[in-house]
Amino acid sequence: MAAAIKAINAKIRSNKVLDYVCSTHFWGPVSNFGIPIAAVMDTQKDPEIISGTMTGALVIYSATFARYALAVTPKNYLLFACHAVNFSAQVTQGYRYLNYWNWGGREKALAAKGAEAGKTAAETGA
User: What do the Gene Ontology cellular component annotations say (predicted)?
Assistant: First the structure.
């Protein structure tokens, strides 16, 4: 049985594509892609639920590990892409957070909701 496993492993390792697909350089980033996918999907949600501290931490995390992915030998471009997408999504979330809480976005949203509620009340009351 051990000889069969050794033969299969030798066959896999002799093929460059299979060797890459069976490595942590492939499966690490693939399993890590859930984070940037969730971050991109969160850009469509209400900015009131964004955590500023968590977003800041994720920006630093993504920038650090994107650099790390290019510093290791061999360079891991798939991991770099994962962290670059996450960095971009987190910077977008950071902008949305600052716009909503610090730059008047919340007031504009509340005013728009108030105007919409007044318009609806006037239509139903008329």
Answer: mitochondrial inner membrane
